[in-house]
Structure formats: C-alpha cells, structure tokens
Amino acid sequence: MVRKKNRYLLAEVLFESGKQAPSNLNEPEFYKEIRDALQIGFGDYGLGLVKKSLNVRYFMEDTCMLLVRIRRGAESMLSNVFLTVKSVCGVPVTIVTKHISGSIRCAQKYWIKYSRRKLGSTLRSITDPEEKTALRQKLDEINKTDFSDLLIIKQPIPSPRLAIKQTLALVKLKIKVVAFSKRLVKWLPPVTYNQHMFIAKLIVCIDVFLFVI
Hints:
This protein has three domains: about 100 residues, Alpha-Beta Plaits, CATH 3.30.70.3250; about 50 residues; about 55 residues, no CATH class. The chain is elongated. Helix 3 packs antiparallel against helix 4. Strand 4 and strand 5 form a beta hairpin. With about 210 residues, it is α+β, with helices and mostly antiparallel strands. It is built from six helices and five strands, in the order E-H-E-E-H-E-E-H-H-H-H. The protein starts with 5 loop residues before the first strand and ends with a helix. The protein has a five-stranded antiparallel β-sheet with strand order 2-3-1-5-4. This is POP5. One of its GO terms (biological process) is tRNA 5'-leader removal. Keywords: tRNA processing. Belongs to the eukaryotic/archaeal RNase P protein component 2 family. It comes from Bugula neritina.
C-alpha cells in the first residue's frame, strides 16, 4: 500500500497592532476562509484539485501558529492563497508562510526553533533591566525543556461503544468459525495429511470471508 504524500504548511497568523488572537477563531473558520480564497483565486478546478487533501490541522491561540495540510505539488498554490486571506470570522489577519515540510513532526520542530529565535531577538530589543532578566530566565528554561513529548499529536480515542461492538463482532466470528470447523470434521471421512492441509486452508479462507462480511 502506497502512503499518500502530503505537505504541511506552517504559517504565522498576525493581527493588527500586535493584538492577541480572539477566542472565537478556530480550525473550521480558517478552513472556510482558505477554501473560499482558493475558489476565488483558482476557480472550481483549483478547489476541486486540493479540496480532498485540504485540512486545517490545528490553530494555537497562544503562539498564533497555523498548520495546514495539502497534497504534494499544491503547496505553492496554498502559500499564495494565504496572502489573499485578509480576515477570518470578521477579524483582520495576515497569514505568513514560515515553513513547508513533509510531516507534522518536522513542522513542529521548526516552530520550536523559530520561537526560540524570536524570543532571542525580543530579548535584545528590551531596555528595562528587570524585564530583560526575567525574559532571559524564561528563555533559559525553554532552552532546557525537552519538547519531544509534545511533537506527536494525539489521535482521537475511539468511543467505548465502538470498541465493545468490535469486540463482540470478533467473538461472534470466532464462534462461527469453530462451530463450522467441528461440523466439517464430523462430515468428512478419515483423510490423509494432504487432505488435512486442504481442510485447514479452507477453514482459513472461510475465516477471512466471515471477517470481511
């Protein structure tokens, strides 16, 4: 099976005059604006080309980080579309592409390095000694922190009802296979080794067939 090759665009969302991200901004709102901008800029053909792979993975309000997935080969199209998005949910924004990677993990690693460099430049521009000392201590703590546990996005946990349903289906399948094999052995006369192997393969095929249906 061939893995689908996608690209992940890491972008920074900038607000007017350095304002913080409003609480009403979320992934569906960004997806709607990006989808509309794609249709306006590239028409129905462009939207249909990337609509299946387009997915806003997450938006972090604290760091204003936006991670968007797109099919390989369309990353330049999406990067140009970011420049045309002027507002999200009525809030004026500017989306700037920072990095393009082939996996979420690489994108997050880049964002950690970028945030550290940004804090370092902010530290050099501060003139107040107390604020500079406090920020330097915070930057030292961040540099010593291991972010390896945060690099993997946790997958949604399946519901207990679905897990119970799948378990009962497997138990029912095993009962059917065992009952059928016992009946098959009773019906057949004494057989040779090759015939035993044929029966075993037949039972395996029936097992697979019952699992599929």
